[in-house]
Amino acid sequence: MNKIIKTERLLLRPLIKTDADDVFEWAGDPIVNKYMPYSLYQDIKQVESWIESLEDDENEFAFCLNDTGKVIGSGSITFDPERNTYELGYNINRAYWGNGYATEAAKAMIQWAYSNLDARDFCSSHANANVASGKVILKCGFQFDHYGQYSRFDGSETFDASFYVLHLD
Ligand SMILES: CC(C)(COP(=O)(O)OP(=O)(O)OC[C@H]1O[C@@H](n2cnc3c(N)ncnc32)[C@H](O)[C@@H]1OP(=O)(O)O)[C@@H](O)C(=O)NCCC(=O)NCCS
């Protein structure tokens, strides 16, 4: 399956092990990690292991700047069979926040899943305190569905959160 997506400023492609240095810039940043369910990465080796563990059907994409090839973020659009929906997630290196990159990449992943996976139903969520992520979700066309909570995988923290859905015909 074609997993190369081109947008105005980005190239989205599968992550590869040699991206680990770039990925660690945000995966090891406590501010980027603040509302993420996964724990802060401690070193590049941990990131390499994560990249190697990715399954094809997770559809995790590196977001690369067209100009330089630098990987400035990543995101995924993964099918959840229990809810019969594709879940959208993303992170951006803090040095690149506020430039519209997350919105550009997220919209492109949704379009890719629509065309390549016949995806029609999508979901996403954000901690209520994570206002920027909420804006990305709304700019992608999602509708608010319900309030709830989610916890870090290690159980150390629970966040009040908002959950959204998007249906495309
Ligand atoms: C959420 C995140 C991906 C947004 O990335 P980004 O590339 O800066 O997003 P965009 O530039 O496409 O859009 C961000 C929007 O939020 C706004 N924003 C940014 N920081 C904000 C803040 N602290 N408070 C309120 N709004 C904020 C921006 O102005 C923009 O809105 P606008 O287009 O109306 O001006 C990035 O902040 C991030 O990686 N956060 C940490 C990881 C994370 O939270 N991932 C999502 C988990 S649900």
Description:
With 169 residues, the chain is of the alpha+beta class. 28% of the residues lie in helices and 34% in strands. It contains five helices and eight strands. The chain has helices spanning 20-27, 30-33, 44-53, 101-117, 131-139, and strands at 5-6, 10-14, 60-65, 71-80, 85-92, 121-127, 143-151, 158-167. The chain has an eight-stranded mixed sheet, sandwiched between helices. The two termini are 22 Å apart. The mean pLDDT is 97. The site of coenzyme A has 20 residues, from strand 5, helix 4 and helix 5. Coenzyme A binds at residues 32, 35-36, 90-92, 97-103, 126, 130-133, 135-136.
Present the secondary structure layout:
Layout: E1 5-6, E2 10-14, H1 20-27, H2 30-33, H3 44-53, E3 60-65, E4 71-80, E5 85-92, H4 101-117, E6 121-127, H5 131-139, E7 143-151, E8 158-167
List low-pLDDT spans: none
Number of strands: 8
Gap from first CA to last CA: 22 Å
Report the mean per-residue pLDDT as an integer: 97
For the largest beta-sheet, the strand count, sense and barrel status come to: 8 strands, mixed
**Amount of beta strand:** 25-35%
H/E order of the elements? Answer: EEHHHEEEHEHEE
**How many DSSP helices?**
5
Summarize the structure.
The chain has helices at 20-27, 30-33, 44-53, 101-117, 131-139; strands spanning 5-6, 10-14, 60-65, 71-80, 85-92, 121-127, 143-151, 158-167. With 169 residues, it is of the alpha+beta class.
Could you list some keywords that capture this structure?
169 residues, 8-stranded mixed β-sheet, 34% strand, binds coenzyme A
